[in-house]
Amino acid sequence: METLWDAFRNLRRRGFRTVLMILGVAAGVFSFLVMGSMAEHFRGLARQFNRLFENRIFISEKPSFWAGGGIISDAKLDKARQAKGVEKAIPLLITRRSSDSILIVGIPQVVIGIPPGSVQDVSGGFPLLFGSAEMAGESPALMGFDAARDEGAVQGGTLMLEGRAFHVAGVFQKTGSILDGQVFIPLTAAQEIYNRQGLLTSILVIPSAGADAEILAKSLKAGVPGVEVIPPSRFRRQVDKALLLWNTLTLGAALAACIAGTLSIVVVMLSSVNERVVEIGIKKAIGAENSHIVMEFLAESVLCAIPGWMLGGLLSVVFSMAASPWMRPMGAHLFDLSPRLFLVSLAGVIIIGALAGTYPAYRASLIDPVEVLKVRY
Fold it and tell me: CA-to-CA distance for 263 and 246, rounded, in angstroms?
């Protein structure tokens, strides 16, 4: 405890340099948390994609499926349903919610025309915050959490799409997946308001029990000409590629954070050693052991790392809260600051603080009090 108190007093005496050291650590923590929160968001999306498309086959005109995937005739739906091993073939008409935004960051929010009663098959069976997934009544709409929040939707309220009023039949709970930005309406209504009578953008195929989705996908490719058939393995490969990118970015952010924090601590602590040569010499002359000197300097570096972590964490929270509303009109939600990220960053700054303070502490412990006092006095 006495060592910690001495370290705290030393930091207070050198206020300006202490602040610089804290800011250096904070900058590293901020970069790690911001990039890490984006990686957390995309990892969550990947998990939901894998859950949603596990043992599912997607048929569309083009591989770029979730903003529409092109237009196909619903005559292809009959061919898909006739294929051996198909339990369900669900027709979909997918279009972007807003036609005003040119720039879309992340996965766009969409309106999905779907046969009533098939919502749970397409949405992954996630629970609703309120309402029912049956889409009963005239012109019903089911909304994802983010879509409902952006529209201020309430149960029984009205949602306007292309000049037509839909009543909000239910809102899904927050999932952290693509479902949060989706709006489900009846397929016939979607075809009417978007002038796509008799047309679809995609078909979701659910294999029968015991059927191999990969083999069925090849059969569908041969039996339904002029379409792109995407099996579950292709989804997994695409998700793995995206995760590799974001994991690499997170690793780069973590490395930058380590470098920034380590350099700021090492430089300031070495300067502190040079300034306190006489003080250290006197302490050793009156009986301080090398281990006491080392522990004092290590305590100083760790004590600076923790406020740096707190400041960096606060800045990352403020940044994500300020940036999220600005990015929402562009169809983006990118930041998931999970408790795990804060715990990892806290452990990281403590380790970095201890490691970065090791060399300055070692330098301080080598000071010979006799030589110091000879030179000084």
Answer: 26
Tell me the C-alpha distance between 146 and 173, whole Å: 9
CB burial string 306-333: b at 16+ within 10 A, e below: ebbbbbbbebbbebbeeeeeebbeebbb
Cα gap 255→261, rounded to integer Å? 10
The span from the first CA to the last CA of the chain, in angstroms, equals 32
For residue 179, give the DSSP letter: G
Residue whose structure tokens are 């073939």:
89
Q: What is the pLDDT of residues 131-160, one digit of tens each?
A: 888 887 788 999 988 888 878 877 778 898
- How many residues can be counted in the chain? 377
| 8 A C-beta contact, residue 50 and residue 209 | no
CA atoms of 282 and 260, how far apart (whole Å) = 33
Inform me whether the pLDDT recorded for 291 exceeds 50.
Answer: yes
Residue pointed to by tokens 């970095």: 352
CA dist., res. 84 & res. 156, Å (int): 42
Neighbour count for residue 112 (Cβ, 10 Å): 21
Asked whether the whole model's pTM tops 0.70, one would answer no
Q: What are phi and psi of 229, to 5 degrees?
A: -110, 120
**Residue 49: both structure tokens together:** 């994609």
Per the structure block, which two tokens stand in for 62? 């083009």
For the chain, the domains span: 2-47+239-376, 62-226
Q: Using an 8 Å Cβ cutoff, are 220 and 205 in contact?
A: yes
